[in-house]
Specification:
Elements (H helix, E strand, L loop, with lengths): L1 H21 L2 E16 H4 L1 E5 L5 E5 L5 E13 L2 E15 L9 E17 L5 E22 L2 E23 L2 E19 L3 E23 L1
Antiparallel strand pairs: 1-4, 1-10, 2-3, 3-7, 4-5, 5-6, 6-7, 7-8, 8-9, 9-10
């Protein structure tokens, strides 16, 4: 029995070494900043809904047109494939949609966490072109946008998105690269949370397209 266990351990160790050689791995961290452009229901629609208590509520979304956001990613490269966990967060004052003029404004906090999958052409050269896809979860919290019985409170829109990614990795050194990129997310918001009504499902989804262009600095090890 002992010989069998030793043989199995030997085979597993040899298999892992072969896999490491055949499928080399590197880990990485990248950070940078990008510019968002956004268009869709958040810029145009005002939600009218009835909560579980039967009260009518109106929700004005922020008109998210153009804004900047920091961008962070951690992940692993396995040969020409990259798997990353991406995080973006941003806060600024925005025009609130659905009022006669643009005098109504509020602070908006938007954050997105994504799983990204990329295939890198020309790996392992110092110049690589990546294409891939992403799935993300997003929230948009804005002050004084939910109105019920004449009172205003904050609202938090929550939803998911699928995305397309294209980037270029240019390695200045073996472990250091500049990564300009373009990302397009098609987002659907399906829930909203307000202080008065708490979590509610939307009768119809709010669709929003986010176009993101930016540049990151990447360190891999």
């Amino acid at each position: 029995m002992k010989k069998i266990i030793i043989a199995l351990v030997f085979l597993l160790t040899a298999g892992a070494a072969f896999a490491e050689e055949a499928w080399p791995r590197t880990f990485f961290f990248s950070s940078g900043i990008g510019l968002y452009a956004s268009k869709g229901d958040l810029n145009e629609r005002v939600l009218s809904m009835t909560d579980t208590a039967g009260r009518k509520q109106t929700i004005h979304s922020p008109a998210l047109d153009i804004f900047a956001s920091p961008d962070f990613t951690i992940g692993v490269n396995v040969r020409e494939f990259t798997i990353g966990l991406n995080f973006q967060i941003w806060n600024s004052e925005q025009v609130i949609n659905g009022f006669p003029d643009e005098s109504q404004k509020g602070e908006s906090l938007i954050w997105r966490i994504s799983m990204e999958f990329t295939y890198n052409f020309f790996w392992p050269e110092f110049f690589q072109i990546g294409v891939g896809a992403a799935y993300s979860y997003t929230t948009v919290t804005t002050e004084n946008t939910a109105y019920i019985d004449g009172e205003a409170s904050d609202s938090e829109l929550m939803g998911s998105a699928v995305g397309l990614i294209a980037n270029i990795k240019y390695f200045l050194f073996d472990n250091f690269a500049i990564v300009p990129y373009v990302k397009i997310y098609e987002n659907w918001f399906k829930n909203v949370y307000t202080e008065e009504s708490e979590l509610c499902d939307l009768d119809s989804y709010m669709w929003q397209t986010f176009f993101f262009v930016g540049v990151n600095l990447q360190i891999q090890f």
